[in-house]
Fold:
Amino acid sequence: MSGRRALLIGVEVAVPVLVIAVIWFWSSGSDVYYFPPLNDVLTTFKDTWLFDRIGSDVVPSLVRLFIGYFIAVALGVGGGIALGLSPVLRRVTAPIVEFLRAVPAPALLPFALLVLGVGNDSKIFIIAFVCVWPILLNAVDGVSGVDPTLVDTGRVYRIPARDRLRRVVLPAAAPQIFAGMRTSLSLALILMVISEMVASSNGIGYFVLQSQRSFAIPEMWSGIILLGLLGYAFNAVFLLVERRALAWHRGARAGSE
Structure:
């Protein structure tokens, strides 16, 4: 098992290295203006992001992303539990939920800018609005799909409702809730960039757009690479948290197999 795991890790590392090597050699003699040599892009990346623009662009972007994301987590988990526990409430609110989650985020940008202004509030609103739906829907499915036998057993033994929620419902729904949170984390990064490309004065998305408009192509590519690295890092950290939080779940599955 350890040998197989080492092989998988080796492949996971080798494939990106191979792709980078191919791009490096393919672009080394490039004279296409829009596809500069990878060496030039990486040099620009070092000069731009290590660490010249961390405070001016990266930090504001991450603050907006995490505030919007955690607002979405709080609303999604709380609302999902309430809807999952009440079939009547779930049925009543279904049309509203389906309507709101179908509204494209870019269509809300003019509204957010008009009502909340061009500062951080409008950007946080867009991130939170889009990220809440995967968490909410997964939480609803997870809570409503809890084995009724477990819930009925808790009632028979007169376990208080709060303890049933904390010790029975939430653990059973946690895998689906985490799946929604992981999906929303990638959406938060996307919406962070989109929101910063409209009526903004800082942020990674703003930097990428301004670089494109000024034909600073290596700088533009360096911003795109940074976004990819951030997305990879967010996913890796989230998987570590999920693995720790759901260690019991993997153990239970392994035992059943």
